[in-house]
Design brief:
The complex is a heterodimer of chains A (295) and B (316).
Chain A (H helix, E strand, L loop, with lengths): L1 H5 L3 H4 L6 H8 L1 H23 L32 H36 L3 H15 L2 H10 L5 H10 L3 H14 L3 H8 L4 H12 L1 H24 L11 H8 L8 H28 L7
Chain B lengths: L1 H28 L6 H4 L6 H10 L6 H12 L14 H36 L4 H15 L2 H15 L16 H35 L2 H8 L4 H13 L1 H24 L5 H10 L3 H29 L1 H5 L1
The chains are: A mainly alpha (295), B mainly alpha (316).
Chain lengths: 295, 316
């Protein structure tokens, strides 16, 4: 496709800008704001640590509890005299990475179960959906905490734990979508030309359900970041000295009266990241739904 | 109608079995296992550990243990706490009222506020109020509950000194007013997310109803607008919210756990975290099961209620 675009006249090369989905997305101001905020946040986390005067583990013992804007400590220091800005950005790398990877894994699990359950409506579908119901009956924080408490919490384990407890909503969405798609004529046509069930499920039905999956993916990142923050805050997630937004808040809790900025700053970062993804998800939902033009 | 109820009951029973199976397997297959707490004690010999495992029935095949445990659930024997040997059900019952008080007050508050915000947003669609409510709800959903709690404590307790920072009552003073003042912050923090969710759903439910013919008919008959709203629109818009209330239980329970931790509230969430720290398997298992049963019952009740309240559901 890219090579084909290359030979297009200049006037056509920008034709993708006229894509109705993109146009609808760009019209959603909050979604665009979300994209801008999350881009800035990611760039800051990736490149920011190289521009600071301190790394996230170096201890400046004479400047403990420095408030923001003390010397080169732009966001102050914590109880050990570590630079808050450096910790915040390094924590962002971990928190965002955990959220993103957990989303990828739970999308795979959720889509797989959703597609199969929607395609085989009989006892396989019903059985799988009861399984989904069972997982949904546990408050996810409870389940994540149990799993995290009994395993050695490394970022990878935490990612896996979050993934295996947040795929259920995706399954439900995909199942409903597939169930309606499989009644459509193109499915019948595919079956008539002798396509196997696997082909129909993953080559015909799944690509047609991609819109809701993308929306769910965006909202899943938001929830995964929140879940990581919850369990790290409660002490069962990412373990110090490795920083994460959640465990920075855990450490800040006892100094709330003395150094409130230690609690306020990481919380703002979490809120900013999660809000961005929620805004983007909302914009995508409107953009991928062609009917929103009619409103 | 009976068919619909039976079907729903059957589904719930299947889910209940799956829930217990998942919970049991997660706990028992996790590294360490139920004996990890005892194995930490250096004064224990292998023979003693073996004896304890034998006594607790941990030497039997996992499936036998599961069936034994599951069948005892129904006669009210949920095992005994590793920590103090008390029956799990009575340990949970001791912490339940605090959680129910917190959840109940906060849910009631969020339903009232959420309904009001949602209906107003729908009636004045795309107004300044509606836009603010929409953006506000999305931001509220993105704020970590515990962080909001910390900020609230900092501002209202440490900075202004108006409200207590934690606990359910002051020792020595357990008057109603004392409970109430301790309840304010946790309830507000827990309500934030629920108001956001409730108002969003209420807005779209109201929008679904407000353009329907019966609303126009009522207006045409000359019924005042306010009365149309309260007697025709809101009553119908609240119907799907019954289902939503059932579906929200896990979120509220999870939120309660985090809120209780921040405010040292002596409820089930605190108990759960304490038990995790002690590897108190029977209690952890009990709380997992208890919350799952609560969620299942809530959903079931919501589905039955909507069948009673909305005849269209019964026929479908």
């Amino acid at each position: 496709m890219t090579t084909a675009t290359h030979y297009l006249p200049a006037s056509r090369r920008w034709a993708w800008l006229a894509n109705p989905t993109l146009r609808r997305f760009m019209r959603h101001k909050l979604a665009v704001l979300g994209v801008v905020m999350i881009t800035v946040l990611i760039l800051a986390c990736v490149f920011g640590p190289y521009l600071l005067h301190y790394n996230d583990l170096s201890i400046d013992i004479r400047n403990r509890f420095a408030p923001p804007f003390t010397g080169n400590h732009y966001l102050g220091t914590d109880a050990l005299g570590r630079d808050t800005a450096a910790r915040l950005l390094n924590a962002g790398r971990i928190s965002l990475m955990v959220g993103f990877c957990a989303m990828l894994i739970s999308i795979v699990i959720g889509t797989l179960i959703g597609v199969i359950a929607g395609y085989y409506r009989g006892w396989i579908g019903a059985g799988l959906m009861r399984f989904v119901d069972a997982f949904l009956s546990f408050p996810s924080v409870f389940l994540v905490l149990v799993l995290a408490a009994f395993t050695k919490p490394s970022p990878m384990v935490i990612t896996l734990i979050i993934a295996v407890t947040s795929w259920m909503e995706i399954s439900r969405i995909v199942e409903a979508e597939i169930r309606s798609l499989r009644e459509r004529d193109f499915t019948l046509a595919a079956r008539m030309i002798g396509a196997s069930s696997r082909w129909i499920m993953f080559r015909e039905l799944m690509p047609n359900a991609i819109g809701p999956i993308i929306v769910a993916a965006t909202l899943t990142i938001a929830n995964a970041i929140l879940l990581e923050a919850y369990i790290s805050f409660l002490g069962y997630g990412i373990q110090p000295p490795l920083p994460s937004w959640g465990n920075m808040l855990n450490a800040a809790q006892q100094y709330l009266g003395k150094a409130p900025w230690l609690a306020i700053i990481p919380g703002l970062a979490i809120t900013l990241a999660v809000t961005s993804f929620n805004f983007i998800g909302d914009g995508l939902r409107d953009a991928l739904d062609g009917r929103s033009d009619l409103k | 109608m009976p068919n619909y109820i039976l079907n729903r009951l059957g589904q719930s029973a299947v889910v209940l079995v799956l829930v217990s199976l998942i919970g049991f397997m997660v706990l028992n297959l996790a590294p360490g296992g139920p004996m990890s707490q005892f194995a930490l004690n250096p004064g224990m010999s292998q023979a003693e550990l073996d004896r304890i495992a034998e006594q607790l029935g941990l030497k039997r095949p996992l499936l036998v243990q599961y069936i034994d445990w599951f069948s005892h659930l129904f006669v009210g024997d949920w095992g005994h706490s590793f920590r103090d040997g008390r029956p799990v059900l009575s340990v949970i019952a001791g912490h339940l009222p605090a959680t129910l008080l917190l959840m109940g007050t906060s849910t009631l508050l969020s339903i009232v506020i959420g309904t009001w915000v949602g209906v107003l947003g729908a009636v004045r669609r795309y107004s300044v109020f509606d836009t603010l409510a929409t953006v506000g709800a999305m931001v509220a959903l993105s704020i970590p509950t515990f962080w909001f709690g910390l900020v609230a404590i900092f501002f209202f307790s440490l900075h202004l000194g108006w409200l207590p920072a934690g606990n359910m009552y002051t020792i020595g003073d357990q008057s109603l007013g004392d409970y109430a003042i301790h309840l304010v912050l946790p309830v507000l923090v827990l309500a934030l997310v629920n108001v956001a969710i409730w108002s969003r759903y209420m807005r779209s439910a109201t929008l679904d109803v407000i353009d329907q013919d019966f609303v126009r008919t009522a207006r045409a008959k000359g019924v005042p607008y306010r009365r149309v709203l309260t007697h025709h629109v809101i009553r119908n818009a609240l119907l799907p919210m019954i289902t939503l209330a059932g579906l929200q239980i896990p979120t509220i329970l999870g939120g309660a756990l985090v809120t209780e931790t921040v405010f040292t509230w002596p409820g089930m969430g605190r108990l759960f975290l304490d038990s995790l720290g002690y590897s108190d398997y029977p209690v952890i298992m009990g709380i997992l099961m208890f919350s799952a049963v609560l969620v299942l019952l809530g959903n079931l009740l919501a589905d039955l209620l909507i069948g009673v309240a909305d005849p269209r559901v019964r026929l479908a």
